[in-house]
Each structure stands twice: as C-alpha cells, then as structure tokens.
Design brief:
The strands form 3 sheets. Strands 1-7-6-5 form a 4-stranded antiparallel beta sheet. A two-stranded parallel sheet has the order 2-8. It has a two-stranded antiparallel sheet with strand order 3-4. The chain has 8 helices and 8 strands; from the N terminus they run βαβββαβββαβααααα. The radius of gyration is 18 Å and the shape is globular. With about 220 residues, it is an alpha+beta fold.
Length: about 220
C-alpha cells in the first residue's frame, strides 16, 4: 500500500467520515433477473457528504494489463495534500469486446471504491435483518443446452457476477463469495445457471458457507 510520507490528517478525517457513511442503497434494477443492486453511483452517493464534510476526495486510476482483465486502484486524498493508494483490484473480463471491458471496469471501480472506504450495500427498505434466512444454493447442474438457451445479455450478466464471486472466493474465502452471490437477488433458476460457471472447489466453498447460514 503506497501513501504520502504522513497520513495523520487523512487518517483522522477518514475516521470521522466513516462514522457517518451509510450503506449503499440497492436502487438499481437488474433488467434481466428482476433484482436490485447497489451500483457505482449509489456507492459514490453514500460517501459524498461525509467526504466533502471532512475535506476528503478520491480518484481512481486504471493500469494497462497484458491479461484479459481490468486493473483499478482507488486513491484517497485529503486537502492537506496527504494521500493513500489502496492498491489495484484486478477483475477478469468475461467478453473480449467493448461491452465486456466496460462492464468489468464498472464492477472493478465499484468494488475498489467500496473496499477502500468501507461501504457495504444495504436494502433500500432498511429491513435486511428481518429477511428470512437465505436458501442454500442449488447443487443442480445445468446442461450446456440450458445455458445456451439464455440470451447473450443474460449470459454476459451471469458471467460478470461469476467473475466477481470467484474473486471474493479467491481473496476472502467462501463466506465472502456466498454473501456476494446472495446480494445479487437471483432466483433459483438463475442460481442454477450461475452454478455451472464455478469449478468443484468453488462450489464446495459456496455450499459450505451456505450450510453455515441456514444451520
């Protein structure tokens, strides 16, 4: 993690800001699966007032890569001139075209910023704690024919979600991957289709986390 020689003032300001930052509202609709999620603008809105009140700002930079991935770093700035570079987040690209790279870049920017400032998504009605316990992820395997019956946009959307869940599994473990999967609000059919995108090790980690949640 790179930083300015001193981050004393930045650290104090960030501590105050985080005391008033709220969760990012899930107010964006997934047009394919009729679910909601907190998009990049929701994360930005969640921190806007707290950052401004404490003389904080941020920039995000993209680094070229020779792999099929996008690399985004979030840098937190303070009016004193102090800065904190939170490091690069690398996210694989599912489709090798402008849409695929654009989608991966948006995901990377959202997750990088959320992690850097400590923002978590919350339900728009504030009643997440009253929801019923999540159902275990189905272990049913989807055939290639069933996967191919989805539209290209649906496949791309699921592939993007799968890449993000894979990233959580590899960096933070099964609980984090399962939590991210549940936050997508997918119905059982979509979970089944998405299940085909994971390998046996990833499935085992998700199933173990799912079992703990419903135990």
């Amino acid at each position: 993690m790179n930083k300015s020689e001193s981050i004393k003032e930045l650290a104090a300001a960030l501590a105050k800001a985080q005391g008033s930052i709220k969760g990012a509202i899930k107010d964006s609709a997934n047009p394919f699966f009729k679910s909601k999620y907190a998009d990049l603008s929701s994360v930005v809105e969640a921190i806007r007032e707290a950052f401004a009140a404490n003389q904080l700002s941020y920039v995000q930079r993209v680094e070229p890569s020779d792999k099929d991935e996008v690399r985004v770093a979030t840098v937190i700035l303070h009016s004193s001139g102090e800065w904190l570079d939170c490091g690069f987040l690398a996210l694989p690209v599912s489709k090798h075209d402008a849409q695929g790279f654009g989608s991966a870049l948006t995901y990377a920017r959202r997750y990088s910023l959320s992690a850097a400032v400590g923002v978590a998504p919350e339900d728009d009605d504030g009643n997440a704690a009253t929801k019923a316990a999540p159902k275990p992820v189905s272990a049913k395997s989807v055939t290639q024919a069933e996967w191919e019956s989805l539209t290209a946009d649906q496949q791309a959307w699921l592939a993007d979600i799968a890449q993000c869940v894979k990233l959580e599994l590899s960096t933070k473990g099964g609980d984090a991957g399962y939590k991210l999967l549940e936050e997508q609000g997918l119905d059982n059919d979509m979970k089944t289709a998405l299940w085909s995108r994971f390998d046996s090790k990833e499935r085992a980690a998700i199933k173990a986390a799912s079992a703990k949640k419903v135990a």
